[in-house]
Amino acid sequence: MNDMAGLDGLQRYPLARRGLFMTGLMGGFTLAVQPVEAQVVTTDTAGLVVGETKIPTTDGALPAYFAHPATGSNFPIAIVNEEIFGVHEHIKDLCRRFAKAGYLAVATEYYARIGDLSTMTDIPTIVKEVISKAPDARYLADMEATIDWAGKNKGNVAKVGVTGFCRGGRQTWLMAENSTRVKAAVAWYGPVAGATSDIQPKTAADAADMLKCPLLGLYGGADAGIKMEDVQAAAAKAKAAGKTVEIVIYPDTPHGFNADYRPSYRKEAAEDGWKRMLAWFKQHGAA
Fold this sequence. Notes:
The protein is an alpha/beta fold. It has a single domain (47-283), classed as Rossmann fold. Helix content is 28%, strand content 22%. Helix 4 packs across helix 5. The longest helix is centred in the C-terminal third of the chain and has 17 residues, at 267-283. The two termini are 32 Å apart.
């Protein structure tokens, strides 16, 4: 997998991300280019409870951000998988959007043991020094721990939806292929092919026939880093095994089209994908 291809604008428009390394989450991110800032979606906290927390795991606690409605309990759970840039303000905003829709949303910083993503802006360095060193088995255990935490903090573990973006989209495929607790998954431009290693032994496509829940894939037809034929092949493999998979491809749309903090943002596709995601969760028991 090429984690660098298709990330339009990131090296030309760096952002200052929040500090997340084991000490927790700190405030604010800014963009270097004003025209991009104008399109950033900001979701307020009215009617919500939001905050930072620590997720207990079998290998120490991980920082995370959560959001849920201010009244009620037993909320459906939305697990939000970060991009390769950590749980920055955009990912937190997505959690608040889920909370506005009635979910307990949680975004865990899965890479905090390995490096401080808030201090890193060079994509090749992030991939080499952090992403490639994160074992898939550790991620899966941490995700299960996140679900456990949510279940103890007003979440309903019988209604779990998982979503993620870019690398988080790949992790969404991975979770859907391994966890029996996830009811529905939505992967936003998640790579399905690429290199493997001893600690990341399978691509998403390799295990597509092992999906344990329905999966919706949202992809850009003009994604420079993900081949649509690879995505369709993974979906075909899953369907041949009797799995429920739907792939939506937005024509002439780049990678990162939901990332409103970067130039790759495409409002129409992002809003359509969000509606499809909520409907998918509802249709398959995660709402």
